[in-house]
Amino acid sequence: MKTICFYFQIHQPFRLKRYRFFDIGKDHYYYDDFNNENIIRRIADRSFVPANQLMLDMIQASEGKFRFALSISGIALEQLQVYAPEVIDGFKELAKTGCVEFLAETYAHSLASLKDTEEFVEQVKQHTETIKELFGQTPTVFRNTELFYSDEIGSVVSSLGYKGMITEGAKHLLGWKSPNYLYASSSNPELKLLLRNYKLSDDIAFRFSNTHWNEFPLTADKFVRWISTTPESEQVVNLFMNYETFGELQSKESGIFEFMKALPRFAEESKISFSTPSEVVGKLKSVADIPVPYPVSWADEERDTTNWLGNQLQNAACSKLYSISERVRLIEDLRIKQDWMYLQCSDHFYYMSTKHSSDGSMRNVFSPYDSPYDAFTNYMNVLGDFITRVEAQYPSSIENDELNSLLSTIKNQGEEIVSLEKEIKKMKALKNKKAISSEANPKKTATKK
């Protein structure tokens, strides 16, 4: 029996305000609050709120047969809690149904998996804790920023205990193979890979309202028929896209909500089920290992990382940012920690892209800057001020060897404190046990005296 695995991404960055060179050292607040609030409110009203209601209605109407997954960056969750708390309430209602799975990812929607493994691990753990606190779930499947994946990244994700990971079904990885199977990491076969069927996903996310598309209009029965006519051995169709597809990227007037609402009925008629990523990982067996020596993503025809690290501007900014990561980890200042997260967001580097690709027009729509060079200049001014604040606490004059020694000392002291705390607990427990024993046998204690 075939199954459809829907996963929806939700992410919005903290966009930076116009920050001049002359602001460095004088202004330590970097964000365009007005723009950020307006964008979140607009998307919440057009997309997230009605989409949450749509999904809840579909779950209830299908008696729990419709199932899907959400992956929400920590940065997006923070903004939604402030500007659109009703969206968070909607997610909680979906979580209560037991039909919606929340995935783990990097808290800051960052490039850390490509640049700093220690930072990557910390962000994943922080995001997982946030999901547990908000929605009562402990994620077992991981979705990296922009679906970045490689054998090296897979090894780290597997070491953190995740059973599955979502990535792109890129042509150069699969060759003649189909993405409609469960695969496994070649470096860690216990880590299962769900590969995005980019054609069918993009039919909904990008082509749905395109009147020049030769398959327009796309109806639910037609879409289900495409899936049902795939080879019988192909067990899972992974449809991964942005949640903003519903109401924002595809307007309400396009019929996107009616299309989704009709899917479960036609799927049931064709004996096609819906599954969450963890259910796919738990039920299906992987058919092969997929070797991925270099990072892939879900962007552009190349399906690589060049949208974020494809030119000198992006690489210079990213290298400068992560050059101070060890110092930031030593700092306890919560404001610096918060800025560190927000400045790692992949969107800042995406705005610096100079690629002339098929989705270049989309990049122009999403970017708040007039050009990639404006994006680079503004970001580097902000980063210059941030680095000044970091170095005020841990100067760059401290050599790396000295800094590593300091980190080792702090780590050893931390381990010693933990060990001593355990000993104190054991001693207290033993003392309490003796006190209880004395109270239970007063005569025996008196005789000994």
Q: Concise description?
A:
By secondary structure, this protein is of the alpha/beta class.
Description:
The chain has helices spanning 33-61, 74-83, 85-96, 112-115, 117-135, 151-159, 171-174, 198-205, 220-228, 256-269, 277-283, 306-309, 312-322, 325-330, 334-343, 346-350, 360-366, 372-393, 400-440, 442-448, and strands at residues 3-10, 68-72, 100-102, 141-143, 164-168, 182-185, 192-196, 236-242, 273-274, 289-290. With 449 residues, it is α/β, with parallel strands linked by helices. It folds into 2 domains: 3-290, 7-stranded beta/alpha barrel (Alpha-Beta Barrel); 400-441. The strands form 2 sheets. Strands 1, 2, 3, 8 and 9 form a 5-stranded parallel sheet that branches. The chain has a 5-stranded mixed sheet with strand order 4-5-7-6-10. It is globular. 41% of the residues are buried. Mean pLDDT is 92; it is low at 357-361.
Using only C-alpha atoms, the radius of gyration works out to: 25 Å
CATH-assigned fold name of the largest domain: 7-stranded beta/alpha barrel
Order of helices and strands: EHEHHEHHEHEHEEHHEHEHEHHHHHHHHH
| Poorly predicted regions | 357-361
- Overall pLDDT metric: 92
Level-1 CATH class name of the largest domain:
Alpha Beta
The CATH architecture designation of the largest domain is: Alpha-Beta Barrel
Shape: globular
Task: Give me the oligomer status.
Answer: single chain
- Number of continuous helical runs: 20
The tally of domains stands at 2
Content-based structural category:
alpha/beta
| Separation of the first and last Cα atoms | 77 Å
